[in-house]
Amino acid sequence: MTKTRKKWIFFLGLAVVVALLPLVVKGGYYLLVLNIIAINGLVVLGLNLLIGFAGQISLGHAAFFGMGAYFSAIFTAMYNTPPWATLLVVMVFTALVAFLLGIPTLRLEGHYLVMATLGFNIILYILMVQMEYWTGGPSGFAGIPPLHLGSFPLQGDIHYYWLLWSILLAVFFLSLNLVDSRVGRALRAIHENELVANALGVNTELYKVIIFAISAAYASLAGSLYAHYLSFISPKTFDIFYSIEIVTMVVVGGIGNLWGGLLGAAVLTALPEVLHAMRDYALLLYGVILMGVLVFFPEGLLPGLVKLWSEWRAKKALVSE
Amino acid sequence: MEMKTNGTLLQLQEVNKQFDGLLAIADVSLHLASGEIVSLIGPNGAGKTTILNLISGVYPPTSGEILLYGESISGLKPYQIAKKRVARTFQSVQIFQDMTVMENVLLGLHHRLQSGFVKGMVHLPAERKEEKRATGQALETLEQLGIGHLAYRKADSISLKEQRCLEIARSIVSSPCLLLLDEPAAGLNIRETEEMAEIIQRLRQQGLSILLVEHDMNLVMSIAHRVIVLHHGLKIAEGSPEEIQRNPEVIKAYLGGTLSA
Question: Which one of A88, A110, A210, B84 is least enclosed by Cβ atoms within 10 Å?
Answer without folding.
Answer: A110
